[in-house]
Specification:
single chain; alpha/beta; Spore Coat Polysaccharide Biosynthesis Protein SpsA, Chain A; 2 domains; seven-stranded mixed β-sheet
Length: 321
């Protein structure tokens, strides 16, 4: 399979060239995307790097890491590469793992592969503490939103995607910022594409991340919530209706009615100063307990739902007609 690398570049003039030199020969093309870099990383690469595989793409203005990756993805699709690897240009990702990413897709194990920095315990000691805590929190939310409960490091940006899987992604709708990785998983999750991981080491130096924690705390929760609702609707009510759908409906009804009824009776009791009877207290309690049981059953069903290897694009469906 023909393989290329997409590498967004922003304030990485001091590291991007070395990253390119370390990319193994199995990769046929390297798309470096200068995302309106104030250091002119793209021009620097053109003048200093003599690798014939290199092709530099430029943005007139900064679009964000997601926007840069999407530009590289579109270029890879235009040249019809089979496997598209995405790495960062800051030198934190060991390019020696690229053959393992390729093998996962070539062997048919997955349509999308992510690096897992948490597989080796030593990596946790090297990772900055604030980054480690943030990654653990975001990882759980990403599992819930995307449905890929088996992934240990869903926020990792070291990835590989097959050509068929990339074709189903609506690139124009995917987030341009740091939510990009989560958004890709959400989109693939709505098609139930097969995803796997490769254990990787990370290289941490004294570099400063452009990611701003306050901005993430403000914007990410709403984005997670909207995509979670969409995934549940797409997977359990629009494209399929199964046992998980029934669990979700029953748990929602029981929890909503039990909670609402309990609050209403508590308010009435408080205002009238008349204690509720044991039977009145038991009704919402039983409803909530059964609702939680059905909710846990829905989560268990979601965790064990079978994935497809290669989701079909609109063009694939048309070609089959």
């Amino acid at each position: 399979m023909r393989t290329c690398v997409v590498m967004p570049c922003y304030r990485t003039k001091n590291t991007a060239a070395e990253v390119i030199k370390s990319i193994p020969g199995i990769v046929e093309r390297i798309f470096a995307v200068d995302d309106g870099c104030p250091e002119n990383t793209g021009k620097y690469l053109l003048s200093e790097v003599r690798d014939p595989r290199l092709k530099v793409l430029f943005h007139d203005r900064n679009k964000g890491v997601g926007g840069a990756v999407k530009t590289g993805y579109r270029a890879a699709l235009e040249e019809n590469y089979d496997i598209i690897i995405k790495i960062d240009s800051d030198g934190q990702m060991d390019t020696g793992y690229i053959p393992q990413f390729i093998e996962k897709i070539e062997s048919g194990a997955a349509a999308y592969v992510k690096g897992n920095r948490f597989y080796f315990p030593d990596n946790l000691l090297k990772m900055p503490k604030i980054r480690m805590i943030g990654n653990f929190g975001l990882s759980f939310l990403s599992k819930l939103v995307s449905g890929y409960w088996e992934l240990m490091d869903p926020a990792n940006g070291y990835t590989a995607i097959s050509n068929p899987a990339l074709k189903v992604l609506p690139l124009d709708k995917i987030d341009n910022g740091y939510f990009f990785e989560n958004d890709v998983l959400f989109r693939l999750g709505t098609f139930r594409a097969a995803v796997d991981e490769v254990p990787v080491d990370s290289i941490y130096k004294n570099e400063r991340s452009s990611m701003r924690i306050p901005g993430i705390l403000v914007t990410f929760p709403f984005k997670y919530f909207i995509r979670f609702i969409k995934r549940i609707f797409y997977n359990y009510f629009l494209r399929d209706f199964n046992l998980g759908s029934i669990y979700i409906l029953i748990s929602t009804l029981l929890l909503s009615f039990g909670t609402g009824f309990g609050i209403y009776k508590w308010v009435v009791s408080y205002e009238t100063n008349v204690p509720s009877t044991a039977g009145t207290v038991m009704i919402p309690a039983v409803l909530v307990i059964f609702g939680m049981q059905f909710l846990l059953s829905a989560i268990n069903f979601d965790m064990n739902y079978k994935r497809r290897l290669a989701p079909k694009s609109k063009q694939d469906v048309r070609n089959e007609r």
